[in-house]
Amino acid sequence: MLTPIATTIQGSEKAWTYIEVNLPSPKGESKRYRIIVVNRDGKLAEYRESMGLASKFKGIRQLNIPSMFEHTVDELRGIADELREDKGIDVAQLLETNDFKLE
After folding, report:
1. Rounded to 5 degrees, what are φ and ψ at 76?
2. Could you tell me the CA-to-CA distances from 27 to 24, 38, 46, 48, 57 in Å, in that order?
């Protein structure tokens, strides 16, 4: 099944999902691609752009942010920026056990 292509996107339009993944480029280099899935004429369409060589993103996890048309393209880009900068999850903070004391 072929996926339609979106050649342009607007920051204010709602998106289905946001993905950052390392893939081979047409020249064979490993590159990081941003894939944003949007609605085009009632069908899901992919917008892709290169973010540069994958080696620039060494140690940074690939991203898949589902949105289901709840977030705009700009909001998803902002979320991705925050996730890319995140160095890990503080499990104690997540579980709210920082102040846990046994008596």
Report:
1. -65, -40
2. 8, 27, 21, 16, 19
DSSP assignment, residue 13?
S
**Straight-line distance from the first to the last Cα atom of the chain, in angstroms, rounded to the nearest whole number:** 61
**Strand (E) positions, 5-93?**
14-24, 30-40, 43-53, 63-72
Asked if residue 40 lies in contact with residue 82, where contact means CB atoms within 8 angstroms, the answer is no
Summarize pLDDT for 13-37 with one digit per residue, the tens.
999 999 999 999 999 999 999 999 9
Q: Given pLDDT bands bounded at 50, 70 and 90, which one contains residue 44?
A: very high
Q: In sequence order, which residues have a C-beta less than 8 Å from that of residue 50 and are 6 or more positions away?
A: 25, 31, 32, 33, 34
Helix (H, G, I), strand (E, B) or coil at 32: strand
Domain extents in the chain: 14-94
Distances (CA, A) of 55 to 27, 59, 88: 15, 9, 20
